[in-house]
Design brief:
The structure is a homodimer of 355-residue chains. In chain A, 25% of the residues lie in helices and 30% in strands. Chain A has 8 helices and 21 strands. In chain A, the strands form 2 sheets. In chain A, strands 1, 2, 3, 4, 6, 7, 8, 9, 10 and 21 form a 10-stranded mixed β-sheet that branches. A 6-stranded mixed beta barrel of chain A has the order 11-12-13-14-18-19, surrounded by 4 helices. In chain A, strand 2 and strand 3 form a beta hairpin. The N terminus of chain A is likely disordered. At the A-B interface, strand 5, helix 2, strand 9, strand 10 and helix 5 of A face strand 5, helix 2, strand 9, strand 10 and helix 5 of B. Chains A, B: Keywords: Amino-acid biosynthesis, Aminotransferase, Branched-chain amino acid biosynthesis, Pyridoxal phosphate, Transferase. Chains A, B: This is Branched-chain-amino-acid aminotransferase.
């Protein structure tokens, strides 16, 4: 790590907030570590990244982020094992997806070393912020936004790439009840649904509020044309278990290529669970709920890891899922979390140890 | 106006930048007036708006605007006639649409008086910034964004409503050549396409760059499902003239309810131009271009007013539009601009004089 630290300028905070934090009572993403990585795109290129004290960002009111939503982000986690070793999970996948998102949003792509070395340097500086408690981790938020100015509706000429970190507890507590959406949509064919673009999330808030008012916690998004195909679960990918087969929709330009999603597919296959990656119709899920073959549904994503679903609403009818003893969800969650936190072997080579 | 000024706190700038500005050489939206209106949503309500010197905005790195694209905006113009009277054009329509956009983006709706009185006060303070030159105006940019903090993907608890103004020249110079899009899409059924949401614009930049690389200036968006229906022209609504009939698509949840669009429909009808508001297929436009009945196409929006199209590309073929002497575009542009700038009567009651 020392070579990397030498490469990236570090301006250390004179004080630390760490003693104000109760690591036994962490919420999700609202406590921030002492430092952040900042990297500016200007004069046509990405400038050298720096680690600086966590601090406010100052922008002109005409900065394009305020007007044209030009922003992308990633979600990652760092874990500490009992020996205080620090691990990341498939970080290169996040880097690659960030650039895929950036390209679609007309944001200049980032050099790999700026992302990877920047991230490792930041984690080395703030390693004391990585929680050791079961179920907690350091949530990592790399993001890029248009900081260039002007009201012309065109890509900015300046951007900021920032990584902030937040020691975090669980995203959801307990099972969630979901509403299969029949009116609103998350993404269009040929749109930006596959990208982690800021605007994809803002558009989900209002339909989710309507679902919450009806007693659900999350929306299951369906295709915008027929509302007959299940696509995503809020900010997660979705898996359905019918009998003993695990099914998830194929990625497309409407669906995020989730890293937890593809890891789960690989683990399930390796563990002998039959997996189908294919379009899922709402009608087959409703039918399976009625005839008892629908055993489980769960969301999968970095923030929530695996989020079991207790039931769903559709056409003004609620369908409860069975309470099983041994679920795919809990088995897969334990398997992936054990890999992430160095409690088990990592036959896939996904874990990256920082040293 | 004095009563309104008394109601809204004004903190005047100690200096002015106005002498640095060449009002005979204004670009679009990159020169900003001395003041701005700022209004914060916190503690569950919109606080009193204030006019303050144009100044940078400082936000926490976790502010939701950077992560979840929760932002909406409007575009308006103020005009000065030869006697230095100041006029707005249908400002209440912008206010109403801002709240329609906000609702869809889960942003708290704004009281009408905060918008209208705030705007009038700001324009009174910066009235010297309103250009008098032909073709120039004061572009007005009201916008709201999520300033509240946290990485949880949910609506913010704090927002900023700001109005900035920019003395501006033409948005486009000359006619534009457009590409009818067959791969990418602007919006989904049940999505946020009807809202002036930031994310709608960022998603257009990359496909527009691809079109520019092929020699076009703008993209004509089609429906995401079949690409068979013409929907919008970049940041504008689109009109097609076949023989002597003016046609524009109906508004929907995918298409912005443009104020210039609906004003043009009304003017055209009043002037005896046959107008059809109905779905327009790409195939009928191509067919009309081939048989010579396609006389004109133009975009319509606040920034560009009316932007004539010289030709379009579709299926790797370019179609040129005829060079007519008297066009609907130039007639309608003169008619609406004369109303806006107090050069003609305003039988519609659209012009609002500030006093």
């Amino acid at each position: 790590m020392s070579a990397i630290i030498k490469d990236i300028e570090i301006i250390k905070s004179k004080t630390t907030k760490i003693n104000e934090v109760d690591f036994n009572d962490l919420k999700f993403g609202n406590t921030f570590s002492d430092h952040m990585l900042v990297c500016d795109f200007k004069d046509g290129k990405w400038q050298a990244p720096k680690v600086v004290p966590y601090q406010p960002i100052t922008l002109d009111p005409s900065a394009k982020i305020f007007h044209y939503g030009q922003s992308v982000f990633e979600g990652m986690k760092a874990y500490k094992d009992v020996d205080e070793n620090v691990f990341l999970f498939r970080p290169l996948e996040n880097f690659k997806r960030l650039n895929i998102s950036s390209k679609r949003l007309a944001i200049p792509e980032l050099p790999e070393s700026y992302f990877m070395e920047g991230l490792k340097t930041l984690l080395e500086v703030d390693k004391d912020w990585i929680p050791k408690n079961e179920g907690s981790s350091l949530y990592i938020r790399p993001f890029i936004f248009a900081s260039g100015n002007g009201f012309h509706a065109s890509p900015a000429d300046e951007y900021k790439f920032i990584i902030c970190t937040a020691p975090s507890g669980a995203y959801f507590s307990g099972k969630v009840k979901v509403l299969i959406e029949q009116t609103y949509s998350r993404s269009a064919n040929g749109g930006v649904g596959f990208a982690k673009a800021g605007g994809n999330y803002a558009g989900q808030f209002y339909p989710t509020q309507l679902a919450v008012a009806k007693g659900y916690q999350q929306v299951i998004w369906t295709d915008d044309n027929t509302h007959e195909y299940i696509e995503e679960a809020g900010a997660m990918n979705i898996f359905v278990r019918i009998n003993d087969t695990l099914i998830t929709g194929p990625t497309s330009d409407r669906i995020l290529d989730g890293i937890t999603r593809k890891s789960i597919i690989e683990i399930a296959k390796a563990e002998g669970i039959p997996v189908e990656v294919r379009k899922i119709t709402v009608s087959e899920v409703v039918e399976a709920a009625k005839n008892g073959s629908l055993k489980e549904m769960f969301g999968a994503g970095t923030a929530a890891v695996i989020s079991p679903i207790s039931g769903f609403g559709y056409n003004d009818t609620d369908y409860d899922l069975p309470e099983l003893e041994d679920t795919f969800a809990s088995f897969l969650k334990k398997t992936i979390t054990d890999i992430q936190t160095n409690k088990s072997e990592d036959p896939y080579g996904w874990r990256v140890k920082l040293d």
